[in-house]
Specification:
The complex is a heterodimer of chains A (113) and B (115). Helix content of chain A is 0%, strand content 50%. Chain A is built from no helices and 12 strands. Chain A is globular, with a radius of gyration of 14 Å. With 115 residues, chain B is mainly beta. In chain B, β5 and β6 form a beta hairpin. The N and C termini of chain B lie far apart (36 Å). The chains are: A mainly beta (113), B mainly beta (115). At the A-B interface, β5, β6 and β11 of A face β4 and β5 of B.
């Protein structure tokens, strides 16, 4: 079945450090791929998405590129801020058919000043 | 525009009690879903619906019932609460599009403890 695997956390960085959170997926065809972010005490919010191979999603300085050849959608940010501290979830929606979203287990990021 | 509204925010139950978690959205979204979030497990889909009168099971449906009598509401019922159902529950909705990739809107969550 469809699945998403994220790097295990927690990840702790200093402010202005470079961030990478790895995400790989298993699915047939061309799923849509997403990164969601959950700030403390809140529900999840869409951070960025990509719906076809080689697409790059970007938002708030975060980027992720849909790599079909490596079935990956890694999240990157060049210079993190304390306000980026949150839990990040990679997710996919299968091509056609099911409307369900499948989530990874989440990666907790803490950014220290 | 309230988005997705979940009630209650917190609930404590005793084993064997029943209750209903409420979820309402005012965006006319066809798709609604319930997830539970547990440490180290991420989000797991309990039930979902693609429109009024249509529901289906997700990954972890046992012990939960849902119904969808209107587009706006999608309540989640715990029939006989068990400690294993202690979790944070999220309701989420989105529009259904043949393009796929539509944004999922989440409620703020219900923290449930079963003693």
């Amino acid at each position: 079945g469809n699945s998403v695997t994220q790097m295990e956390g927690p990840v702790t960085l200093s402010e202005e450090a470079f961030l990478t959170i790895n995400c790989t997926y298993t699915a047939t065809g061309y799923p849509s791929l997403f990164w969601y972010v959950q700030y403390p005490g809140e529900g999840l919010q869409l951070l960025l998405k990509a719906t076809k191979a080689d697409d790059k999603g970007s938002n708030k300085g975060f980027e992720a590129t849909y790599r079909k050849e490596t079935t990956s959608f890694h999240l990157e940010k060049g210079s993190v801020q304390v306000s980026d501290s949150a839990v990040y979830f990679c997710a996919l929606k299968a091509q056609g058919g099911s409307e369900k979203l499948v989530f990874g287990k989440g990666t907790k990021l803490t950014v220290n000043p | 525009n309230a988005g997705v509204t979940q009630t209650p925010k917190f609930q404590v139950l005793k084993t064997g009690q029943s209750m209903t978690l409420q979820c309402a959205q005012d965006m006319n979204h066809e798709y609604m879903s319930w997830y539970r979030q547990d440490p180290g497990m991420g989000l797991r889909l309990i039930h979902y619906s693609v429109g009024a009168g249509i529901t289906d099971q997700g990954e972890v449906p046992n012990g939960y019932n849902v119904s969808r009598s209107t587009t706006e509401d999608f309540p989640l019922r715990l029939l006989s609460a068990a400690p294993s159902q202690t979790s944070v529950y999220f309701c989420a909705s989105r529009a259904v599009s043949t393009l796929g990739g539509e944004k999922l809107f989440f409620g703020s969550g219900t923290q449930l403890s079963v003693l």
